[in-house]
């Protein structure tokens, strides 16, 4: 079994001793059934990872000591932001989780006109916090030490006003494939629609912003599949696959 990894939103340094936060502690003690002297890996998103030894377990309380630091990163050389139309329920969670595994650098939820889920105020804040937790858990699983940020939901127009880099948007009506495009010189922004895709005026805004429409074969993919297929293809063409 690989060494368990836990993301902690706190400063870390070799030699430090502390109790794991409640969530990781419960997972270590109950789900993984770790024992005293077992080794875990901790990271906080600031770079690298820390080896730690479990010193004490008392029900859901797990005390650790940090024994060393490894300056290792597992980031893709391909820098891609995913601008994903907000989808409902587990679809969005699945897309974010697998996008992290595929190396995405940042995630921008797009409040598209056809998005089933409508978010604002406190509800939006809670959902973003949930999505950030999904992203952190995916980093624990796949070995990444950099945690991609999840932005607050924006309309497509508001996001396009501040977007940087080459814009690519997925469209079943496009003529170009990803393989027809040159390798990116800097960063890419991949735009994927929600259930039902983008409205006509949103597509017009993408064209006006210079976004390049691309298709993924002759089939129409679901919202939770399309971005992931595109990311895998981009990693194969230009990244580290």
What do these coordinates show?
The structure is a single chain. The chain is α/β, with parallel strands linked by helices. The chain is built from 6 helices and 10 strands. The protein folds into 2 domains: 5-70, Ribosomal Protein L25, Chain P (Beta Barrel); 79-238, SPOUT methyltransferase, trefoil knot domain (Alpha/beta knot), CATH 3.40.1280. 31% of the residues lie in helices and 24% in strands. A hairpin with a 5-residue loop joins strand 3 (39-43) and strand 4 (49-58). Helix 2 packs parallel to helix 3 (121-142). The relative contact order is 0.15. The mean pLDDT is 95.
Fill in the CATH topology of the largest domain: Alpha/beta knot
- Which parts are unreliable, with pLDDT below 50 for 5 consecutive residues or more? none
Could you give me the name of the CATH homologous superfamily of the largest domain? SPOUT methyltransferase, trefoil knot domain
Which percent bin holds the helix content?
Answer: 25-40%
Biggest pleated sheet: 5 strands, mixed
Would you state the CATH class of the largest domain? Alpha Beta
């Amino acid at each position: 079994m690989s060494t368990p990894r836990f993301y902690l939103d706190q400063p870390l340094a070799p030699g430090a001793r502390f109790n794991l936060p409640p969530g990781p502690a419960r997972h270590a003690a109950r789900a993984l059934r770790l024992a005293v002297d077992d080794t875990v890996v901790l990271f906080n998103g600031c770079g690298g990872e820390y080896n730690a030894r479990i010193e004490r377990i008392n029900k859901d309380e797990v005390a650790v000591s940090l024994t060393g630091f490894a300056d290792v990163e597992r980031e893709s050389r391909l820098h891609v932001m995913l601008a994903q139309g907000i989808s409902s329920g587990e679809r969005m969670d699945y897309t974010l989780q697998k996008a992290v595994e595929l190396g995405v650098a940042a995630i921008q939820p797009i409040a598209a006109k056809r998005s089933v889920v409508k978010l604002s105020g406190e509800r939006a804040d809670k959902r973003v916090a949930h999505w950030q937790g999904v992203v952190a858990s995916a980093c624990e699983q796949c070995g990444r030490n950099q945690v991609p940020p999840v932005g607050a939901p924006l309309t497509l127009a508001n996001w396009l006003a501040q977007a940087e880099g080459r814009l690519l948007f997925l469209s079943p009506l496009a003529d170009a494939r990803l393989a027809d495009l040159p390798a990116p010189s800097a960063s890419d922004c991949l735009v994927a629609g929600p259930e039902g895709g983008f409205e006509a005026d949103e597509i017009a805004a993408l064209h006006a912003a210079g976004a390049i429409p691309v298709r993924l074969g002759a089939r129409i993919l679901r919202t939770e599949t399309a971005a992931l297929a595109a990311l895998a293809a981009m990693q194969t063409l230009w990244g580290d696959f």
